[in-house]
Amino acid sequence: xxxxxxxxxxKPLAEQVAEHIMNNILEKGLEVGAKIxxxxxxxxxxxxxxxxxxxxxxxxxxxxxxxxxxxxxxFVSARQGIVDDPLGLAFLKDKTHLALDLLSVRLMLEPExxxxxxxxxxxxxxxxxxxxxxxxxxFINRGESHTEADILFHKQIAACSGNAVVEKLVPVINxxxxxxxxxxSSRLGKExxxxxxxxxxxxxxxxxxxxxxxxxxxxxxxxxxxKSLERNS
Length: 233
Prior knowledge:
mainly alpha; 70% helix; 10 helices; two-stranded antiparallel ribbon
């Protein structure tokens, strides 16, 4: 490790060590929740001081690659390096305009993601998608917030696509779902149920064009409502 660090002098030592730890996680195939060696063991193995290890761990925690559980140790994070609000959308004040901008991006992406899901989803993935659809419906029918369930529904569609990059785009889509539900005050309950069912049916039937159209319809309902709210504000 010493020679590796010497060859990367342009980077701060803690950053180099953070990269070394990250590469070690990947090489060993450590899963979410796996515990990594303690501070002393890492310092011995890498050949740096414990203070440098602490700084490297802080870097990886800030990037949501690792998480520290007080009294238990340091573990591979379930967030898998995905940060909240990666585009800094929370700092934009005009939430209605932001919702429309996000919706434009979703209209570019999600219909094709749904089509990819119809081509590539495994039977097991479809079953999980159906369960998540039912959870959303259950929350809507009970008059409770369905935001988290809706986010997981769209996340599962991304997983069904079979494209690893698409799955990493989901956090941006997720932030928009929470925003839409907030702005529309969950007024699209029936439309959400109907279009979710159509999306899932098309994915299950292996119908890419149908899935694409159903997702487009789902997002169009949102756009119509948000535009009407904008006009009446």
